[in-house]
Specification:
Elements: E1 7-11, H1 20-33, E2 38-42, H2 48-51, H3 64-70, E3 79-80, E4 84-86, H4 95-99, H5 108-114, E5 122-126, H6 133-141, E6 144-150, H7 153-172, E7 178-185, H8 192-205, H9 219-225, H10 230-233, H11 238-252
Parallel strand pairs: 1-5, 1-6, 2-4, 2-5, 6-7
Antiparallel strand pairs: 3-4
Helix pairs in contact: 1-11, 5-6
């Protein structure tokens, strides 16, 4: 029997505050709702993904840090909430320094995922808002990248930097990585600025811009405080529906 590899998606943009964590969690939950087995990995030392599933990163004995730095089997750190999650802990901030002398340090995450490749259909990786070693680990392990972009010009400049980084990763570490899509987030549909920003995105990236749009709503702030996705917090709300629509798009890409 051939080993079926999961689709590994990194959510990346070195600009913070673009709804990366929100998108990682809510897309993962939407994929799980449609019957897929999903693992989320929190590679951000801030631990927002971990907290948004009701887990306090400061109290964890085992986290993705132990997997990356001490080669602990990833199965030993996974916890099950709405989805399976490999959580971040406060130690993760020191991971880049702790890994700096490690041979093959860019591939630590990729290697750890091999042992669970039969357990999941999707692996969704939240990355920190920088292009350091943690993000490089995520991009080396992934075959696709989803780029959440806030609909404003400054946020779009980050896309150019990210494209340069992806080119470097393709040449040196992971020739197969591709942009799955660019996701307009935090959209305020009432402004001309947001519409113009989307036009610029579509001029530059064409059909790589998802048809789904994530509009600004207070629900995205409220749900994580309750330790849940917006799909669980307000299942019939427009925010939940927009992530279900995104999940359909991702699934239709094969």
């Amino acid at each position: 029997m051939e080993q079926k590899k999961p689709k590994v998606i990194a959510f990346a943009n070195q600009k913070g505050g673009v709804a990366k964590t929100t998108t990682t969690l809510n897309l993962a939950v939407a994929l799980a709702e449609s019957g897929h087995r999903v693992l989320c990995i929190d590679m951000d030392p801030q631990g927002n993904l971990t907290m948004s599933q009701g887990i306090d990163p400061d109290t964890l004995d085992n986290s993705i840090y132990d997997v990356l730095v001490h080669d602990k089997p990833i199965r030993e750190v996974i916890v099950t909430r709405e989805i399976d999650l490999a959580p971040a802990s406060i130690d993760l901030a020191g991971a880049e320094i702790a890994m700096s002398t490690k041979i093959g340090r860019e591939r630590s995450l990729q290697k750890s995922l091999m042992e669970v490749s039969n357990d999941y259909d999707f692996v969704c990786i939240d990355t920190p808002p920088s292009l350091g070693l943690l993000t490089i680990n995520a991009l080396t392990a992934a075959n696709k990248v989803i780029v959440p972009v806030q609909c404003e010009y400054l946020s779009m400049r980050g896309l150019i930097q990210l494209q340069n980084t992806l080119q470097m990763i393709r040449e040196n570490l992971n020739p197969d990585i591709e942009i799955e899509g660019i996701l307009p987030t935090l959209m305020d549909t009432r402004t001309v600025h947001a519409k113009e920003a989307i036009e610029i995105l579509e001029e530059n990236f064409g059909d790589r811009v998802f048809a789904s749009r994530i509009k600004k709503t207070i629900r995205f702030a409220e749900a994580p405080v309750q330790g849940m996705s917006v799909l669980k917090y307000e299942p019939n709300g427009s925010a939940a529906e927009s992530y279900r629509a995104l999940a359909k798009e991702v699934l239709s890409h094969g």
